[in-house]
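note to self — DONT lose this again. spent like an hour looking for the file last time. sequence + predicted structure for the chain T wanted, 304 res
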Amino acid sequence: MSTSLSRRRFVAGLSMLAAAGATGVRAADGTGDLKVRWYGGGVYELAMPDDSAIVLVDAWIWNNSGFTRFNLTKPPELASAAAYADALKARNPQTVIVPITHDHGDHFGDYFELLSVLTARGLDVKTVGQSDFMRVFLKDKFAANGLDNTKIVLNGGNGINMGGSASYKGVKFTSVPALHSMASGYPPIGYIIEINDVRVYAMGDTDLYGDMALIGKRYRPDLAFPCVGGGPFTMGPDDAATACMMTGVTHAIPVHYAHSPVVLGPETGETFKADMRRVDPKVAVTVLKPGESTRLHITPRARA
C-alpha cells in the first residue's frame, strides 16, 4: 500500500466529522464579495469590494521571486516599496492590515519596510501575529524602525495566540496552528479571517494534520488558501486537496508554489485543481498567476 493512500485513509476518518453537514446546508442570505490578488509564493491580498479594508497576508512583495518561473514581468506597482505604497494609497482604504504567519524570508522579507512606507503615506496600518513573536521578539525591531508596537500591532501590541482573536474595522482574525517552523523559534500560525461575511482559512505554511477537521467544524471556513508547493518545506497538492476536504471549504485558491527552485513549478496550480476534483469535486478552485486578481462571489456556509 502506498504511503499517500495509507495517509488518505487515515485522514478520511478524521475528516468525517467536518464533512458531515459541512458542505450541505448553505446560508440563505448574506453572500459575500471578495477581491483577491496573488503576489506570488505564499503572499496574497484580500480586499473589500470598495477597498475600504485591504488585508495583506504576509509581507514579501517587491522582493518576491514568484514571477520568475512563470516567465512573467512583475507589474510596476509591485516592483518597489514606493510604487506599492503609492498604489495602495490611491485605492483610499480605511485600513490596511498585515497578518504574519511566520518569519521565513519568503513571507516576512519586506515586513518592516512595508509597515514603514505605508505609515509614511498616511495610511491606517495595523498588523497581527503570534503574540510572543510580536510583543517580545519583535518589540525592539518595531522601535528601531520608528514604529510603536502598542499602536500598530492589534490588541494593544499583544497580537494573538492559539485560538485568540483580534478585530479591526470590520475584519476579524483568529489564530489557528500551522505545522511548520519559525527561525525565531516561536510558533507559526494560520488564520481564520472574517471579511465581508466570508471566512477565509489562510493556512500559511503547513503540513496536513488531523485537527484541520476540527478547524472545519469549529470555524466553518468558506475559502481556503492552501500551500501546495511540496518539496522540503510544506505539503504538496495532493495533501492540500485533502486539507480542503477536511475543513469543508467550498472554494480554494492554491498558493506557495513556483517561487523557489526547490518547490513544485508553475503547473502545480492545475495539479491541485485536478487533485481537488478527485478528492472533493464540490470544492471550486480558482488558479491564479502571480500578480493576477479576481473577484469572488461566495455564499457563506451556515454557521452554528
